[in-house]
Amino acid sequence: MKLLLVIFIVHTIFIPCFSFDVSGKDLPLTLDYYKSTCPTVFDVIKKEMECIVKEDPRNAAIIIRLHFHDCFVQGCDGSVLLDETESLKGEKTASPNINSLKGYKIIDRIKNIIESECPGVVSCADLLTISARDATILVGGPYWDVPVGRKDSKTASYALATTNLPTPDEGLISIIAKFYYQGLSVEDMIALIGAHTIGMAQCRNFRSRIYGDFRLTTALNPLSATYLARLQEICPESSGEGDRNVTAMDNVTPNLFDNSIYHTLLRGEGLLNSDQEMYTSLFGIQTRRIVSKYAEDPLAFFEQFSKSMVKMGNILNTKSLVDGEVRRNCRFVNT
């Protein structure tokens, strides 16, 4: 796989541009899939995402997370976007998604614009995948080419949404197994959790961490103790109290896509148990090495993140490729 690296300067931030060879006889996605049917699709999504992230920088993390939750259930097929109906049990109410996964209205907004220009052409799955790439760029992350040509599924899986997605308190071995199941390596896993550098977490997802081994992993560092006190103000120990209060997973540069999250893990200050496990788990010999590498070398992190996002985006629902569709409304199967 050949890598072409170019460095661009945008608002004094150096943004690496990674272009990978995505061709291959077994890969049904291409870079020019919409060249003749909807040539403006990438420009339309980019322009709208610029407005959306400008309105609230947190929208970048919201869209990246939505893409992740889509791809880990049935592949990247837009199934996460489907509303529940009498005949379809959706994924939005599954435990990893309910009351936390957002961004549906953002996708609706972009879809409406694209439908007005190229009706019935661009799938919701492709729209979400492109939007996640643009969201990354707009907060300082790397560029990568997005292969397109996905079809939207006519089904969703509440069961797989419940079991396939990693949880905030999950152990390292179990998380690795979930990534392997998707065809993603340990290196992919560590790179992809780097997106938490712009993420927010709800109190209910980090309560056990800050009232658990947080002091132990920070080696009783006084500076970390001050940070912990702030976290405990946001998130009371009693279950049910302040469950939906939120804070940034990267408390240094929360709105900038950089490698700061790995420095957070090195300090033992990872907000989620599942993140900190990457560095402090007894089983984390390989993961600890990779975390340290990305903390030391932001360009290596950006390069691998780009590769891993392409790889994750290429997790396909083979059934949808055969009998899928291009939804007119991302929330509902066409009738």
TrEMBL record:
Cofactor dependency: heme b; Ca(2+)
Active site, renumbered: 69 (proton acceptor)
Record: residues binding Ca(2+) 2: 197, 250, 253, 258
CDD domains: secretory_peroxidase
Coiled coil regions, renumbered to chain: none
Disulfide bonds: 38-118, 71-76, 124-330, 203-235
Binding residues for Ca(2+) 1: 70, 73, 75, 77, 79, 91
Record domain Plant heme peroxidase family profile: where: 28-334
Known catalytic reactions: 2 a phenolic donor + H2O2 = 2 a phenolic radical donor + 2 H2O
One protein family per Pfam: peroxidase
Compartment(s): Secreted; Vacuole
Binding site for substrate: 166
InterPro entries named in the record: Haem_peroxidase (IPR002016), Haem_peroxidase_sf (IPR010255), Peroxidase_pln (IPR000823), Peroxidases_AS (IPR019794), Peroxidases_heam-ligand_BS (IPR019793), Secretory_peroxidase (IPR033905)
Family from the record: Belongs to the peroxidase family. Ascorbate peroxidase subfamily.
Name of the protein in question: Peroxidase
Protein species of origin: Raphanus sativus (Radish)
Designated gene of the protein: LOC108839710
